């Protein structure tokens, strides 16, 4: 009888343990992180009126659906057309915030899509449409006027509120569990840096769905030699192409930039004992590498055209005798290369070198410096010079993220 009781007790114990395991499994499922913005609706971003890029926009209204075909101009003067192909049904998203481009007279821009916003989004973000669904909000950014009159911080608070509002609406209504790459330049990168630090890193769901953050032209800082700490506590610096949940960050100066040499650099500067990050998308492990550049073939709109110093007129040394560029973009393979530098002033930057040859038909230089704002280096073309590398990297990171799901 005792043996029967003992046997019954053992069977009962096994059954109770199985039930306990089942309960634990159900509890673990219940504890999976949930979208913090489920059900959120924005008054500004609830329809497509204030989006430059959005899947619900018609192709004619969607900046990221524009023609991105490119003429590749080689050192011997020969050319080939590179067609831009988009994935029919992208499995991941990209969320882009453009830099300071508005020429509006007030310290905050309006919500109109001006030629500067359209041009910049086309040049800096649209090419990610090769593998991404694209989202790019119009926001009331701090304008060039705010830089000039010293009210950039106050105007920036208004701008950030719009960026956060648009991101919350995207996460709550469009994301649906998809991975997302955050892309920003200059002011846009600064807003996204704050978004990552204040919002993404503090929420398990958001952090899990961050494929990477491509934050260019506004420093993310870490302790020198470290890949984490400082501005971000959980998002590390990207060091491999298949690494996810990490950040790409750099600012570009030309080799032998006299203002950089004089210690007048505005970007890549140290602060509070922290060093600016430099990650070269063309060579994450370090060293010199060629940049896959994409330059606009047409004129520059409005305020942008007035800001950029012209060293050359297109990809040819003698444009008048060269064949016309018939695509919206051109590229110059193996023409610009660079590597990350940490100089004696503590400036951390991506150094760019033009590999010109006076004996070939290509131009021996490229445009990028400001006509004003000393110490800003090649800030205007931070993304232009490495557009192809950034897209290739984003694609690899997206593939790695999807494989981990």
UniProtKB/TrEMBL annotation:
Pfam families membership: DUF3089 (PF11288)
Keyword Signal carried by entry: yes
Source species, domain of life: Bacteria
InterPro entries per UniProt: AB_hydrolase_fold (IPR029058), DUF3089 (IPR021440)
Signal peptide positions on this chain: 1-17
Electron transport found in the keyword field: no
Keyword terms: Signal
Membrane-spanning segments: none
Protein name: DUF3089 domain-containing protein
Organism for this UniProt entry: Candidatus Marimicrobium litorale
């Amino acid at each position: 009888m005792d043996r029967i009781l003992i046997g019954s007790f053992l069977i009962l114990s096994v059954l109770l343990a199985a039930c306990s395991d089942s309960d634990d499994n159900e509890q673990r499922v219940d504890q999976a992180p949930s979208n913090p913005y489920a059900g959120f609706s924005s008054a500004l971003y609830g329809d497509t009126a204030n989006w430059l890029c959005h899947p619900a926009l018609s192709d004619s209204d969607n900046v990221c659906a524009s023609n991105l075909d490119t003429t590749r101009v080689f050192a011997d003067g020969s050319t080939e057309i590179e067609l831009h192909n988009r994935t029919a049904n992208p499995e991941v998203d990209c969320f882009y915030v453009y830099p300071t481009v508005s020429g509006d007279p007030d310290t905050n821009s309006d919500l109109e899509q001006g030629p500067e916003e359209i041009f910049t989004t086309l040049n800096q973000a649209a090419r990610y449409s090769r593998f991404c669904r694209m989202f790019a909000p119009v926001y009331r950014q701090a304008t060039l006027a705010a830089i000039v009159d010293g009210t950039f911080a106050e105007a920036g608070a208004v701008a950030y509120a719009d960026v956060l509002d648009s991101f919350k609406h995207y996460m709550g209504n469009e994301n649906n569990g998809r991975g997302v790459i955050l892309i920003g330049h200059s002011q846009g990168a600064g807003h996204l840096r704050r978004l990552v630090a204040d919002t993404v890193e503090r929420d398990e769901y958001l952090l899990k769905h961050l494929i990477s953050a491509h934050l260019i032209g506004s420093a993310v800082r870490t302790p020198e030699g470290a890949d984490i700490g400082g501005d971000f506590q959980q998002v590390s610096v990207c060091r491999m192409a298949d690494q996810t949940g990490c950040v790409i960050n750099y600012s570009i100066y030309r080799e032998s930039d006299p203002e950089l040499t004089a210690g007048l650099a505005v970007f890549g500067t140290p602060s509070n004992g922290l060093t600016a990050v430099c990650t070269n998308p063309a060579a994450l492990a370090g060293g010199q590498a060629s940049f896959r550049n994409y330059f606009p073939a047409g004129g520059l709109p409005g305020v942008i055209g007035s800001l950029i110093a012209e060293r050359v007129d297109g990809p040819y040394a003698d444009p008048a005798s060269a064949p016309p560029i018939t695509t919206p973009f051109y590229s110059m393979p193996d023409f610009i290369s660079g590597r990350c530098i940490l100089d004696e002033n503590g400036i951390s930057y991506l150094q760019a070198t033009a590999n010109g040859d006076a004996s070939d038909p290509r131009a021996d230089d490229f445009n990028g410096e400001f006509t004003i704002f000393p110490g800003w280096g090649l800030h205007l073309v931070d993304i232009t010079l490495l557009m192809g590398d950034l897209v290739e990297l984003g694609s690899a990171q997206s593939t790695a993220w999807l494989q981990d799901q």
